[in-house]
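User:
Hi there, any thoughts?
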Amino acid sequence: MSDSAPQQNWIGSHQKSSAPYFRHIFQREGKLKSASLAISGLGYHEAWMNGHRVGDHVLDPAQTDYEHRVLYVRHDVTQMILKGPNCIGAILGNGWYHQDRVWSHRKRGEQSDEEGKKTEQRVRGMSYGEPRLMMELELNYEDGRREVVRPDSTTRWSSGPITDNNIYSGEHYDARLELEGWSEPNFNAHLWEGVEQKAPPGGRLEEQTMPPMRKIEKITPQEISPKGEGRYVIDFGQNLSGWVRMSIEAEEGTEITLRYAETVFSDGEINTASTGVFATEVEQIDRYICRGGKVETWEPRFTYHGFRYAEVLGWPGELKLDNITAVVVHTDVPVVGNFACSDQRLNQLHQMALWTHRSNLHGIPEDCPVRERCGWLGDANLVTEYSLWNYDSKSFWEKFLGDIETTRADNGGIPCDIAPGKRCSESDANPDWAAAFIMLPWYLYERSGDPKVFGDHWSGMVQLMAHYENKSDDGILKGGYGDFFDPGSEKIVSHTPQVLSTTLWYFKCSIVMAEMAKVRAEIKSAERYQLKAVQISKALERNFFDRETGSFGSQGANVLALAFGVLPEKEGQIQDALVRDIHERNVHMNVGVMGVRYILEVLTEAGHGELALKLMHQNTYPSFGHLIERGATTLWECWGEIGHDENHGARSLSHPFMGGYDNWFFESLGGIQTDTAHPGFKHFFLKPHPIAGIDWVRCEHEILQGKIESSWRVEKGVFSWNVTVPKGTQATVQLPVSGEEITAMVGRHSYSVDLPSRTS
């Protein structure tokens, strides 16, 4: 395959078409050695060759800021090339490139007239332009000849059966308009029209190197409820992202409508409120018109949905289980982590975190798969670490760092709250959300050992730190979102002042920048950032720490202060204040998404693992158990404040930034911990924390060198532990109770420790 980028030779239809079809005929002349297709269809494309799909990708290519960079995909098509005439084809969908329906206008009454004009200018026109196609086929013959095939004046296009498609609102398909055999060489295309040359989108071409989106698995309905003639509500039993595939035999012209929702009302009717209709002004709806005469199987191509329930309207006869399937669709990141234990609540919460994360991987790390589908930086910061424990997602997050770069390029060097895309594209990110631009490279470096990941973004990170310093006052940095979605209100509230949580992140970023500067051998920079961290620490103590209570004033602030090591000499007091507050609230968390990320690890490291476990078993509001009892199979955007049973407010029911607790399973219960002095797992720590009430834990993490294993069991007061250290690595093993440290070389090792009396 070629290593060079294809030429930016873009074509399109000369008039608007919801999803134009393209075909190009070429001749193969000679014995073929290899053939590769480089293709980018904006917004999304589906490639075909001689009547067959090319590859198994869906929703290609991933979203970017198209005026800065455009991703193309390369396929090996050697086995698909025929002798003689061949046909290469493509279908274009609107995707994000031509998303002109949602977030494209100002809501009336949102701001004053003067401010409103600014907002209207900022959000109008989410579309980058009409869909367009670039494809280049490289043929390498055994006699050494190389031939490049590109669209030209002989390339033809036609409209087809996809009569409407939008990322948010769904896809409409009229099977009566199907073009059977359209991508075969002998198809009669005399009614098709010539293509039009299109201007390049503006961005540089880059090959898509992260895993593509694919159809991952199928889920059969858990329940089908008749709701009247031709109408059914289907419960798939799991909130997911993707679409419905249906199989039907009906008369020509029969129209089937699919409406998607995350939840239902008490009478079983679907409730679309949590999908954000109030903001998008559209529902998730697919429509299919039957061709008739045979069994027809259909699923959409250029949209996806967040849903657990689907309403089917217009179905002829009885809807059966084998007529309907949910197809799970997301970026196909390989699984590298596994956690299971004797506690089924923890297993359930682990799976909920994974389902929520998977449901929000569509080329970018989304906040939710329904209302916004945006790459909010703060959300990414809270998700990246547990993503890396569970999936080989390094290239995914590297791509997202590139997205942050393109947003800051248009914003004076400072990241925006969201990347990529045109929402919030002309305003500085809140400082606590912008911290992701510094933290993500560090997370990736810890696990890969490759300093290039932060070297590529170093100048931008330095600029962001200078921005923080300019905005700060004597070490205090104002602004931000706060701990975000603390319990207590259906609105966004925070028991931790925004200035406090933001300044805590300012401290953490300074520490991380100092460490990265050391790796880069920039000693003066490292000293400067370390000094800045000391100054911020003193400012935090001076302005927010209560010496009498030993507290920063909230669970969230205390958790972040402990996790970041802000006041090492005061940690005992802060731990006591945190534990005291939890007990005063009858063993409940009172934190938002930042506190959720660290609270369990902070408690467990301080010797309060049993309290952490009780928090995870709490079933009354606010708690994860409370959400589970209300039917949650993914993590909600908020704590499900009382009173939302019928409407669930306007909040999403699939928000991965609530899943930061998943790190606890790997780092505290399994005890697998990175060593920042020896990144890339050249050396790592194994420090599990047995907790009364948990009888066994099995934790595995696959790295480049092999599989790390930490599995333990407690029987009759004896802690039995098996560990595996891969070749090319070394581990320091810390035994529970005694704290004795042992150097574990390559191979499998077993340890046994008598535990003191345990209470459940």
Q: What stands out?
A: The chain has four domains: 10-208, 215-331, 337-669, 683-754. The chain is about 25% helix and 25% strand. Residues 106-124, 644-648 have pLDDT under 50 and may be disordered. Residues 215-331 form a domain with the Jelly Rolls fold (CATH 2.60.120.260).
